Amino acid sequence: MKIDYPAIIKETLFVDQFIEQPTPTIIIGGKIVGVLNSFISICGLPKSRKTTFMNYFIASALSGLEHMTIKVNCDPFDKVIIFDTEQSIYDFSRQLKHLKHLIRADKIPVNLEAYLFRAYDPEVILNSIYLIMQEKKPKIIFIDNITELVLNFNDPVESKKLVQFLKKITAEFNCTIITLLHLGKGNLQSLGNLGSMTDRSSNSVLRVVYDKDTQSSTLEANMLRSDALFKPITIVWSDEEKTYVQINLTDQAPTEKTSRKFDIQNLSREDHFTKLSLVFGRKDQLTYEELISEIKLIYGVGTNIAKQIIVPVLLEQYILSRIEKGIYILLTPKKNKYV
């Protein structure tokens, strides 16, 4: 196919004029997460409840209501489409059962459609998605998950091709895409070259973290291109209410591993230095992942408390310092402004 470069150059030339900010398509905790003509990435380990959080996005799009501080702006006639590449029909039906419970409906609304592509190769899925987009022209689409849209998530060429496909359909159909992607178990980073490229091209990168201690899952913002980070959202399953509920971890009852709630106010500055010196005595510097892992061990807490309570306090009190992106050191008393 011959490429019309003059037409492309004319189309892509920026004209300096007033452009009114469009209504965001996705808002979480009052922060802009998604806009039209873009895609966002939700990453997490398998079974971290990524799909559960995705259901809150879908429920908000269908009901017009806010769910767990997640608000998706859709009109009742806007088409919403789910492309699932992993689940069996039975497992997907269970997901829809939870969704119908959220929106208080016996059947899914007519403006929601779902396609299950578990049995098909990436090329077939991508071509099918494009044909469906041409016919249905949805405003919001969900892809769970994009790992199955490539044969090798470490192949830079194949990964780049998929990212360009996502950019193309958001631009051509003026929609917002919510993608789900696994994290690597070894480094807790987005999976392979595909993960790195989607992180760079996403309007927002969100992460779902499961905490075994509290049996909770937290949705947190790694990067928002259009706004400041939102406050993390933590959910747990409630046997009493037979659904997930949002919690504040500091209000949680003690777990079996602890006789009382963790309270950082019970620790003195000397306590912190004593604990951390055990860690930094072995290494002068730690990555963020190493730091969280060590804090969980020496403080006896879960991931969410380590990330959301302990590290911020240690940084605020000049006990820890971030010397560059993702690298942390323990400050000596001479460097500490409180000494």
Summarize the structure.
The chain has 339 residues and is α/β, with parallel strands linked by helices.
Structural account:
It is a single chain. With about 350 residues, this protein is α/β, with parallel strands linked by helices. It folds into two domains: about 230 residues, Rossmann fold; about 70 residues, Arc Repressor Mutant, subunit A (Orthogonal Bundle). It contains nine helices and 15 strands. The strands form three sheets. The protein has a nine-stranded mixed sheet with strand order 6-5-7-8-3-9-10-11-12, with helices on both faces. A hairpin with a 2-residue loop joins strand 1 and strand 2. Helix 8 crosses helix 9. The longest helix is centred in the middle third of the chain and has 18 residues.
CATH topology of the largest domain: Rossmann fold
Biggest sheet strand order reads: 6-5-7-8-3-9-10-11-12
Please trace the helix and strand order, writing H or E for each element.
HEEEHEEHEHEHEHEEEEHEHHEE
Query: Into which percentage range does the β-strand content fall?
Result: 15-25%
Would you state the CATH class of the largest domain?
Alpha Beta
Shape: globular
Give the fraction of residues assigned to helices.
25-40%
CATH superfamily of the largest domain: P-loop containing nucleotide triphosphate hydrolases
Secondary-structure class = alpha/beta
Q: Taking Cα atoms only, what radius of gyration do you get, to the nearest Å?
A: 22 Å
DSSP, total strands: 15
